[in-house]
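Re: your question from the hallway

Yes, I did run it. Sequences:
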Amino acid sequence: MDRRGLDTRDVTRIVAFAAILAVLGLPGAIPIGGSVPITAQTLGVMLAGAVLGAWRGAAAVVLFLALVLAGLPLLSGGRGGAGVFVGPSAGYLFGWILGAFVVGLVVRLGGRRPVWWRTAVGCFLGGALVVYAIGIPVQSMVTGLGLRETAVTSAAFLPGDLLKTVAATVVTMALWRAYPRAFGNPTRVRA
Amino acid sequence: MISLYRPGNSPLHRLPAGPKLLVVMAAALGISLTPPSPALLAGAAVAVTGAYLLAGLGAAEPARQAWRLRWLVLVVAVSQVFFLPALTVVANVVRVVVVILLANLITLTTPTGLLVDAIERALTPLRPLGVNPSRVALMLSMTITTIPVIAGFAAQIREAQRARGVPVAPLAFAVPLLIMTMKHADDLADALTARGID
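Structure:
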């Protein structure tokens, strides 16, 4: 993995994606269903993994969450601060880190170029299923509602996450055609 | 960037950021993980209100913070009403609100800069794993200055689409935003390299 060799270009790309995550939270969340507002930020998590790859994608999410912890209201709906890390949606936030990693792992399997089907599978697996796998147990613990009941109420997000998977796939493939440099050093990306 | 911090000079403001973060988060987790009992919750609510008074934030501040959580409260309550007895639902909702209000005390009484410093210090033990704390701190402050730049790109794209009479489509918005952002990242990298910062 390219974890050791973090050069200046990697650093600024991680920074830029952390900033994109923040900007995606600006238009405002739509509070429907479950205690976790629907947000374009999970789309950003999928894109971070798909474009930057596993390690750098996860690093961008960690950087973004560190700023939220430091007191900046960067989550959708202007939420932020230490409170969100002990609230019902805390597990989903932590899930974003592993989620972005898994997205990157699947989309860029062994340093390959992104193809549409692997991008779609990776975005759904990492951006939705992994996030649920960490988010639902934590939500159940925080709110005191049983695991199964929490999972049932969280199913309200599935349609939105499917839509986001489609959007992330289309955007990733369009970006690959328009600006392949975004995906890293072109000489390192195998066709 | 507007932080959630409220300036002040209370004992809570003067506590060092790192220990405050640890103690308050541990207390919040403790309340969160103990089974809710009315006595414990009432005690915790009184203690949290007391801490807000001690921080000089006023008695109305906890109420204002709780009001901000109204959607969360509504959603937590509605999703539980079908599964749990009413009293348990009330206890669960009160616990969630108390825990969030408690954790928000850190954010309200600590400037963002001091919390960033605390994060940097907390990363020092990870140095053998290849984590460079000062580089992380640099990345945190770089992100803060990059957010308005990217927000500017987003506004530019929206305006260009409006000028052409195109309805703002999410996909036609995301692709140019990503290209502009990644180009900006590469320019930033060139600028850093030219100045000998790596």
